Amino acid sequence: MSSSAAKAHSLGSYQVIRKLGSGGMAEVFLATQSMAADVERRVVIKAILPHLADDEHFVEMFMREAQVAALLSHPNIVHIHDVSVIEARPCIIMEFLRGRDLWHLLRRTATLGERIDPTAAAAIVAQAASGLDYAHRKRDEKARPLRLVHRDVSPHNLFVTREGHVRVLDFGVAKSSYQQQRTQSGVLKGKLPYMAPEQARSGGVDGRADQFSLGVVLWECLTADRLFARDDPFQTMNALFELEVDPPSARVSGIPAELDRIC
User: Fold this and answer.
1) CB 215 within 8 A of CB 248
2) Is 82 a catalytic residue?
3) Tens digit of each residue's pLDDT (9 = 90 or more) over 49-71
């Protein structure tokens, strides 16, 4: 176990089992929460990195993510149990899910020379679309629209449980009416191969940008190929702006016409 994981082992009432990963702002742990009557449950803890815990700007961004995520309650969005500051580190405590993210599933099927069945692909994307539609329509306690946009819809952030349920993960780069515009000029939020062109141009976005990204996900599920991704970011950007996209049925036989039209 890493030194940071060892320190996290004593986070309040949570006992860390192992570190699941880390990013530019936070690290994620699988942990056990001890509750009354000797009841325990598995949870996932997203904790701001120790060296950023004293940085006001990063703490503000992290807590803004927590504020947005805590407002969302939908079967197709990962559930937030709690938001807390433990040992001076802001933490988001989320439900533990058994399964794999869609990126892993796509890579696994590609390794086996297979594709996700079109019906399964449609079901995955439909569930994700339901969660995103809820987020796009969400209002606060005073009935004011949040105007929430995820901005990072990709196979990495769509989780498929063992039971076949889909959860949208990580509203960490989400844009909402609560957010102050502090993004630096020219800094893109999200994964370029899945961005809507207006997002890649750093323009204003709404829920349609998430729909575009989800359409790219569906196309890649159906074809077992990458759509806009290239070896070089500039080539990816050019493809995003200029590529004439073939319908999935032009690449793979047996794709229903309805899915061609959706893509």
Assistant:
1) no
2) no
3) 999 999 998 888 888 878 888 88
